Sequence to fold (400 residues):
Amino acid sequence: MRYALPVWVLTRTLLFLVAAQVIPVGYEGSFDNDVRLYGDWSAILLGGEFPAGDDKWQYPPFAALPMIAPHLLPWSYQISFYVTAILCDLIILLLIHRFAVRNDAGSGAVWAWTVGAALLGPLLISRYDLMVTLVAVAALTASRDVLVRGMLIGIGLSIKVWPVALLAGLRRWRELLAGTAAALVTTVVACGVAALIMPHALDFLTNQQERGLQVESLAGTPFVLGRALGWWDGFTSYQHGAMELVGEGIETATRLSVIATPVAAVLLVVWWLRAEATETTYYDAAFTTVLLLVLTSRVLSPQYLIWLIGIAAVAFAVRDSSQRPAAWLLLGAMLLTGVMYPWIEEDYSWSGQLPGTLVLVARNLVLLAATVVSFVGLWRSTRRRTATVKEPETVPTGQG
Fold:
């Protein structure tokens, strides 16, 4: 931590200066578009209601908290959001450091977050996914009490849906039931209170239904590559806040992507029922489950990797984790994603140029490899071991 903290300060200062265009690099909209949208939403939220009729609002009610929080600081909304994000980033670093020290796991976890997260570039501090990742990392590291873990997962679920995946690693039926109950009660109470106090709190339940296949998704990769090679004559269109693919075969690919998520869930259920859990199962299963969730999604936005690097850093803090090989692969995907967005995004999103498309394809293949390695590692590390029964030795008898 002695060496990592100065590196963290240096990298986050650089990210802040680039995001705020103090260091002018262009691509202003890539960093502040979402932040300005959060600012617009926060004005509506402070007025006593959730955004109505806005298909970009696709988040549970507690997503309002990280969007309103920057108003507590004295600067412009944009600068205050970046500062809030950096404070959350620092808390994640401290949680990971504390957890690694408790496990006597060395400094790898701290470096994984310090450097790995920075590979995403200014995107790291210009999306509210960093705030959700803070809650998820807290659910993984702050307490071993299953009810506390469940409550934190419920809070994360009330901000963005994906932290529900952290329930997969609870090791016994009693733990799973208790943790799930705590998460559901917390979520229902949070959403219920929000719905009672503010109109349109539950609109997010229907706003995602019309989403199509995003250009960055794994299921979209063959089409993006086909377009760049001249084999597919489809195109991209900005819809629902993202670049989506339009053309022949997309509807089928979208359906397959939607089906892939429950198929992945079935795989996890089969694993869970057959697993002989260890002390590391909770952390390992969290990483595998979120990888599967991200990879099978029809929407694979670059900021989703913030979730993954937070959990990967936790895996590095667990001495016997089976997920370190997959976590190393994720670091490669982080670097490629940082190159992709926003620096060459136009190449594969709008114009379909081959060099930029190949970077996207490489990123998705690395993510696919990480997911396969992660699931295989999880399966093998929790495989039931059958005791070998030895045949009784025959004692020779003497002749009479």
Observations:
- The chain is about 60% helix and 0% strand.
- The radius of gyration is 23 Å.
